[in-house]
Amino acid sequence: MGREEEGSEKIMIYKRGDFWHMDVTVNGVRYREALDTSDKREALRLEKERVKDILQGKGATLAGRDFARKPFSEAVKVFLDERKGHVSARTLQIEEQRLRPLKRFFGDRPVIRIKAEEIATFQRSRLENGKRGKGASHRTVNMETGVLRRLLKRAKAWNVLSEDVRYFPENNGVSVARVLTAEHKKLLFETAAHKEEWLVAFCAAVLAVSTTCRGMELKHLRWRDVDLFDQVASIRRSKTHAGHRALPLNADAQAALARLRERAEALGSSEPDHFVFPACENGQIDPNRPQKSWRSAWRSLVMEAAKRAGNEAAKDATENGKDPEEARKRGALAFISDDGQRLRFHDLRHQAITELAEGGASDATLKAVAGHLSQEMLEHYSHVRMAAKRTALDKLSGGLIAPPACAPKAASKAVN
Q1: Which CATH number fits domain 69-164: 1.10.150.130, 1.20.1440.170, 3.40.50.2000, 3.40.50.620?
Q2: What whole-number distance in Å separates Cα of residue 253 and Cα of residue 257?
Q3: What's the CATH architecture for 173-294+345-416?
Q4: What's the predicted TM-score (pTM) here?
């Protein structure tokens, strides 16, 4: 037990059972609280931090202390309920998803008793055991740690942990996106047009590859944002403010929107405020809410495109006396990689930007069309442009002149 007086503050910590408590009077107000630790040095540190918070007017409410003592799984529910109305529905959905592995790990452990070592153990376990038996990426673990940080801040428990919690390094370069060849691109869209139940995903894919739009931008597109006469679509909901832009519609984009317009008129969802991609749950269309996902249809059509690509490759191999099964596997790689990663819907945005860059579009044009592009992305597409130019000029080479025998290697390579 210890007592100390400093001006208007009276401080005492004492042990009850296995845990230390504090009994503090600050400016005539008494605070009696559990410190939730059995270590005296830790108790002294927590008591000091608590007094500091009280003097600064932080975390002195009963609600804050009650939240910190809640079991983690219960605190998650309270945290998410409090976030409603302050963040978008999509942000709330993402945070709920990121909190799921945290709930499984911490269970009913009181929030105030979570230690930095336990957070480190959680991070390592996620790297080793993510979804489908594969470890989660550094970025995924960092995002989960980020939402945990916000929850601990709500409990006024983050300050004592912040110096000991580490984030994993992330690859800050340009993410690797899959870009299809002209043949595979044609095959993908021929496959997508094959089934009526894929119509929505098909039209969304056409718009993405024809405009550089992200999936989220398309889902929040309303009919008032589409002008089929002037052939312009206005993007009003995007990842950043720079993503708000007006996009000219090429022939493919116009055709896709015309198909969606026919569908909307048949469903009675073609009013200006209605969404181009309306929500559909249990067969019921709600034009006042945007569609959440076309993931199932997209996965199915990508799998079908991979199957078709594999069959075509196998057929060619058989005609040429080669192993058809090996050719089938290689043919499907355009859509499904060796590690099972499918072509993502977002890859269509990269497809469109890459084709623009290969066509010689300037940085200003890429920014205007694609919206937000980081400097790393612009540098990436500058390399794409140079590669396209080099390929085009290499086709002009016809062995018209032999390099001198003493030519430097770099020069000799350039000529060849």
Answers
A1: 1.10.150.130
A2: 6
A3: Orthogonal Bundle (1.10)
A4: 0.66
